[in-house]
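Query form — protein Carbohydrate ABC transporter permease

QUESTION: What is the three-dimensional structure of this chain?
INPUT:
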Amino acid sequence: MSVEFSSPVVNARSVAQPLWFRLRKSKGITLSVLMCCLALLWVSPFIWMLSSAFSASTFGEGMASVLPRFPLTLDNFRDAWQSADWLSLYANTVIFSFGTFFVQLITITTAGYVFACHEFRGKQTLFLLFLVQLMVMPVVMMVPNMMTLKTLGLLNTLTGVMMPYFTSAFGVFLMRQAFLAIPKELEEAALMEGCRWWQVLYRVLLPMCWPSVLAFATVSITYHWNEYLWPLMMLNDPDKQVLTVGLVSFAMGAESGGQWGTISAGTIMVCLPLMLAFIAFQKQFLRSFGFSGIK
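ANSWER: The C-alpha cells for Carbohydrate ABC transporter permease are given below.
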C-alpha cells in the first residue's frame, strides 16, 4: 500500500499566487480610495462655499456645514451685489489683468525673438540676468517699486499698478524656447520676401507659437486677477480698487455680522469669470500647456 505525499513547495506556490493577486488588487483599491479622499479634501472648501452661498443666511449657524440648507436661495448674491460697487471692481480688474497681459505680449515676444534669432555680444549673460529675476520674490521689490513710481507720479493709478509687470522673465524664457523650435528657414524666407523683422515676428513666428502664448496668457491673467498685496499698497482711491481688495474690505464688514453666506457669494462672484473661462476653454488650456512643455 503506497501513500502519496504532496510537495510542500507546490502547495506554497498555489497558496501564494492567489494571495499575491489579492494583495495587488487590494493595493489598487486602497490607492483609489486614498486619491478620492485627497480629492474630496481638496474640493471641500469649494463645496462649503457653494453650500453657504445658496443657503438661507442664519446668524450663528452653518459656518462649518457642507450640506446646503433648503430651500436654496439667491438672496446672498443680491446682498453681496448691493454691498459693493462690483461694476467698478470688475472694470478695474479687467483693465489691470488684460492691460498688463497685452503689454507683456509685446515685450516678451520681442525679447524672446531677439534672444532666439539674433546674435550679439553679451547675449548669454543678459539672458542669464533675465532668468535671475525668477529667483527674486516680488515682495522684495515692492518698496523700491513704490519709491520709483512715487518719483514718476504714478502712485494711486492703475498704470502704476501695472507698470512693474510690463515684462516677465518667465514669459521671455517661454517665448524664446518656442521660437527656437521653429525652423530657421521660415524666418529667412520671410526676410527674403521683403518682410521687416517685426512683420516676421508678428505675422510668421507668433501665429506658430499660439500654444505658448495661450499658456502664458493663462498664467498671467490668473495671477494678476488674484493679485492682492501690490494693489492694496498702491491704490488708495476706492474707485480704483480691484476685486481682491474690494472683496477683503467687503468680507471684513460681513464677517463681523456672521454673514458667511454673503461672504461666500461674494467670493464666487470674484472667481466666477475665471471658472467660466476655464470650463469654456479647458481643452485649449490643457493642450497649450502640453505643447509648451509646462507641467
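ADDITIONAL NOTE: Residues 8-54 form the longest helix (47 residues).
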